[in-house]
């Protein structure tokens, strides 16, 4: 059966281990999350679907609540779809929830914001069991300098200095509403919530904060780095394994807990897309 262009529209929330895939988006010569989900659906139903993703995570980046959508004429009851789909998916990916939405819904363009989590492991010994969900940074880190750098990176800026080459966007101005800094023994967790992220932006922000903690970047120069629009001045692009897409936000509650909590003039227009 060919890819359909009719039927009901479904929003699907998935969790996946990014180290098993070469990114979310379908590729010609490498396994992607999109390909994995679509192939499993075909094996289940004989129907070819095309998923639209709300975030195109890179190779090695995992997700806790990734959202995508697809059209289908399936007769599988809604409350049975996730269970049936998971039965044919590999252990590295799972459908967490699914619901009917308006056919106009597009998780990429209707998303109002995202939260990414970056986990850093410290200490004398590199992590083994946690290596697929964290980045190891040996040596001492100045936590106060890291907190200061995070505070100065928050807000509305042009984040050109924190974007690697290859980004198709022409809109580098984004708002980082919050950078949360949490630490426990042997672990630092950075949580970024913003209205949009540029190519590798979260990983470069993490690298800049780590560099401040290592004394390689003076926190007094953070504003100048932002204003320079010069990628060379910011910190390194941290490994993808430490990054986790935690949540994608929309105008209203799609799966619960994902309503964008900040004021946004786009909300009313986007809200209609969630209603079947």
Fill in the keyword field for this structure.
276 residues; alpha+beta; Alpha-Beta Plaits; 6 helices; globular
Quickly count the helices: 6
- CATH fold title of the largest domain: Alpha-Beta Plaits
C-alpha Rg, in Å?
20 Å
How big a fraction of the residues is strand? 25-35%
Strand segment tally: 10
- Proportion of residues in helical segments: 10-25%
Order of helices and strands: EHEEHEEEHEEEHHEH
Distance between the termini: 26 Å
Global mean pLDDT: 94
Question: How would you characterize this protein structure?
Answer:
- This protein has six helices and ten strands; from the N terminus they run E-H-E-E-H-E-E-E-H-E-E-E-H-H-E-H.
- It folds into two domains: 8-110 and 250-274, Pseudouridine synthase I, catalytic domain, N-terminal subdomain (Alpha-Beta Plaits), CATH 3.30.70.580; 113-245, Alpha-Beta Plaits.
- With 276 residues, the chain is an alpha+beta fold.
- The chain is 21% helix and 26% strand.
- The mean pLDDT is 94.
- It starts with 7 loop residues before the first strand and ends in a 5-residue tail after the last helix.
- The radius of gyration is 20 Å and the shape is globular.
